[in-house]
Amino acid sequence: MMNGTCEHSMLSMKLGFHWKGTKHKQLEGKDSAMKVFRQRKPLYALFAMLVLTMLLAACGNSSSGDNTGSNTGSGSTANGKGCKNVGVLLPETASSERWDSKDRPLLTDAITKAVGQAPQFYNAEGDATKQQNQADTALTKGACILVVAPFDGQAAAAIVAKAKSRGVPVIAYDRLIQSKDLNYYVSFDNVKVGELQGQYIVDHYKDYTKSGTNMVMINGAQTDNNAILFRQGALSKLQPLVEAKSLTKVYDQYTPAWDNDKARTEMDGALNAQNGNVQIAYVANDGMANSVIAALKAKQLNGKVLVTGQDATVAGLQNIILGDQMMTVYKAISKEAQATADLVKAISDGTDTAGVTNGATTKTADGGAVPSVLEQPVAIDKTNVKTVLDDNYVTKGDLCKGLPAGAGGIC
Length: 411
Ligand code: BGC
Fold this sequence. Notes:
Elements: H1 4-16, H2 22-30, H3 32-39, H4 41-64, E1 86-90, H5 98-115, E2 120-123, H6 128-140, E3 145-148, H7 157-165, E4 170-173, E5 184-188, H8 190-204, E6 214-219, H9 225-243, E7 248-254, H10 260-273, E8 280-283, H11 286-297, E9 306-307, H12 314-321, E10 328-330, H13 333-349, H14 354-357, E11 361-363, E12 369-375, E13 378-380, H15 386-390, H16 396-400
Parallel strand pairs: 1-2, 1-3, 3-4, 4-5, 5-12, 6-7, 6-8, 8-9
Antiparallel strand pairs: 10-13, 11-12
Helix pairs in contact: 1-4, 5-13, 6-7, 8-9, 10-11
The structure holds beta-D-glucopyranose.
C-alpha cells in the first residue's frame, strides 16, 4: 500500500525506535544531542510516534490518490507496468452471440499470449450494478489492467474512477465509457457500421417499396454509446430519403439491453399499428433481426420486407442465405481482441502505447480525448457471404447446418 519513498521513511522511523540497537549505541558517545534525548526519552518517543502516524497517513493517501508510485499493493502494479493479472468484464450474453462465442475466446487467446497468463472473466448479464461489483471483485483479486465492455457506458465511469484510484488502467472494449479518465478505447468505427446499414437501405429500398414506403427503426440500447452511433450513422444516409418522402419513418425506438425478445414485441406492435404495411425494418443487430423475422413470418411477410442486421452471426448469415434478412455488418472481432492485447502488452511492458493507437482519439461526453484503436466494419449481403468464411469467422459446417444442400450457392 505504500510507495518506495514512504516505505523507506517508515523503515528509518522504525529503526529509530531501537534505542539500544548497536548503531545508535555507537552514536550515543559521539553525539551530545543524544544525551539530551536520553534524558527526555518519553518525550522523544511521543514525538517519534507522532511523526510515524503522520507518515502512515501521508503514505495511505498517496497510494489511493496519486498513481505515479511504483507499487499499489494487492498484487497490482501502478499504471499497469509489469501487470499479468488482467480482468475482462463483458456486458451481456443474450444480446448477441458474439460475447460468448467470439469475444471471450479471442480475448483469452490474445491476452494470454500477450502477458503469459489467462485473464479473469466476468459477464454482467445486463446489470450495471453487477458489473460494478464484478469490477470490485477483479480489483480485489489483484487485477492490474481492466478491459471493460460496459453494460451502461455512463454508469461504468464509476469503474474507471475506482480503477484510477488504484493505479489500474482501463481499456474500454467495443463500447465507450463516458469518462475522461478512461485510458484507452478499442472498437470499430461505429458510425460507419450505421452508415453501411443505412447505405444498404438507400441502395435497395426501391425493390421493397412498391406497396408503400413505411420504415421502422429498431435500435439497440440507449445506455450503449454504440447504439446511438449506429442510429446516427444510419440516419445520415436515410434522413434525405425521409425528407424527400421516399421513406416514411413510422417507428424509431431504442431497445433496452438490446433485448432480442423485446424486439419481437416491438415489431409485432409496429406491424399491428400499420396493419402489416411495413416495407423496411432497420434493425441494429442480427439477434434482434432474428426476432423481427419471426414477427414477419407470423404474418407471411418474411422476405418481402428489407431487414438489416449486424454481427455476421451464424443465424444472421443463414437468414441472409434464406432471403429473410438482406444484410449484416461483419466486424472482425479477432482484430479487436488483438488490438486490445497489443495495448495490454505495451502497458505491461511499459513501452509506448502510441505505437498501437497511432494518434487516434475518441471524445467522451465529459470532454476527454481517449487514445483509441477503431477497426473497419464490412457490409455483407448474399453476394459476399464468402468473405466471412474466407476469414474463418464462421465455418462452412456451422453456416450450412440445417440448411438445404445448395443453399446460397455455398452449402
Ligand atoms: C456491439 C454489437 C452487439 C450489441 C449487442 C454492441 O455494443 O457493438 O456488436 O450486437 O452491442 O450486444
